[in-house]
Design goal:
The protein has twelve helices and 15 strands. It is an alpha/beta fold and 337 residues long. It has two domains: 115 residues, Rossmann fold (3-Layer(aba) Sandwich); 172 residues, 2-Layer Sandwich (Dihydrodipicolinate Reductase, domain 2), CATH 3.30.360.10. A seven-stranded mixed sheet has the order 12-11-7-10-9-8-15.
Length: 337
């Protein structure tokens, strides 16, 4: 059986999810090596997974002749550079979100991808979630008719440290960016305007670094339809991930995934499990499915389901939302592109 050789750049939280899936659950993949600034700290963990090459130098992996594809899960600001270097070396790329923070750098990377003729998939794993995929199917097949409104709720169980927020790109690039992509995925086209209100209701220190911990965004599409996105960095009852789509012929709702669906009723009330705690638990299957999709796209010469253009548009919406929240006004997407 043909195995695809992969190099992984970045072995933080999400990087480890991808590495473990590739090693333990995807027979057609072989992880050749890992590049991470903490190479000495992760070496023993990598060796237990059968990965011998662990380096601090990403270019060492990119130019390794056994590596056919690169998985980029390093900090977001490094992504365009690594995409460019991988494309120049003729290596296919899976890039975690965001594809980058700077539109000029992103466009430069996408130009290099096109010149090299490699495949680029961006890590918007929620498109591969069975629930959201079903909603997309209902919309695509016309079961809901013309779409009037989309409501997305995305609340984390605990906020990142202020120090982590400084390097993550903030709430729009790190958290809401998934919801921006989901809005485009479900609606099937691009918003023309964003209006976002941002607040620091959990920790005022986020505002001190120019960020927010609570935001609500309204996306307006060309046909007048509307999408609302409700984000919070702290939900005491767990990872709150819900979507509702309402159209001319009906509506569909995705509720939270829970450890069990048992409902207990007694004299004190009705009780149900809280949602699964965080992204590793809630989206475990979708992380595996998106990586399987990436591998099959390369081995079978197919186009990825999530492209570089999707990554670019999500960043455009993140920039527009930040501008809207900061300037307290609606922002036309034409102002950003």
């Amino acid at each position: 059986m043909k195995k695809l050789g992969l190099g992984i750049i970045g072995a933080g939280s999400i990087g480890r999810v991808h590495i473990e899936n590739l090693v333990e659950r995807i027979p057609k993949a072989e992880v050749i090596g890992i590049a991470d600034a903490r190479a000495n700290e992760i070496k023993n963990w990598a060796e237990k997974l059968g990965i011998d090459t662990v380096t601090q130098e990403p270019l060492e992996l990119i130019h390794n002749p056994r590596v056919e594809a690169i998985v980029i899960s390093s900090p977001g600001g490094t992504h365009p550079e690594f995409i460019i270097e991988s494309a120049k070396a003729g290596k296919h790329v899976f890039c975690e979100k965001p594809i980058g923070y700077n539109l000029f750098e992103i466009k430069k990377a996408l130009d290099e991808v096109q010149r090299a003729g490699i495949k680029l998939q961006v890590g918007f794993n929620r498109r591969f979630d069975r629930n959201f995929s079903k909603v997309h199917e209902f919309i695509e097949t016309g079961k809901l008719g013309d779409i009037f409104t989309i409501n997305i709720v995305s609340r984390d169980p605990e906020p990142p440290s202020v120090e982590a927020a400084k390097i993550s790109g903030g709430i729009f690039m790190d958290t809401t960016i998934h919801d921006f992509d989901m809005a485009r995925f479900l609606k099937g086209n691009n918003p023309v305007q964003v209006y976002t209100v941002g607040r620091c209701l959990i920790n005022p220190k986020y505002c001190e670094i120019g960020d927010y911990d609570t935001v609500v965004s309204i996306l307006t599409f060309e046909d007048g339809s509307i999408c609302t996105i409700d984000n919070s960095l702290k939900s005491i009852y767990g990872y709150d991930q819900r979507v509702e789509v309402f159209g001319a012929k009906g509506g569909v709702i995705v509720f939270n995934e829970r450890p069990t669906n048992a409902v207990i009723r007694d004299e004190s009330g009705t009780h149900i499990d809280n949602p699964l705690f965080f992204f590793r638990e809630r989206y475990k299957d979708s992380y595996l499915t998106e990586m399987e999709n990436f591998i099959s796209c390369i081995l079978e010469d197919k186009e990825p389901m999530v492209t570089g253009l999707d990554g670019l548009w999500a960043t455009v919406l993140a920039i527009a939302s930040s501008k809207s929240a900061n300037e307290k006004r609606p922002v036309k997407i034409a102002e950003i592109l």
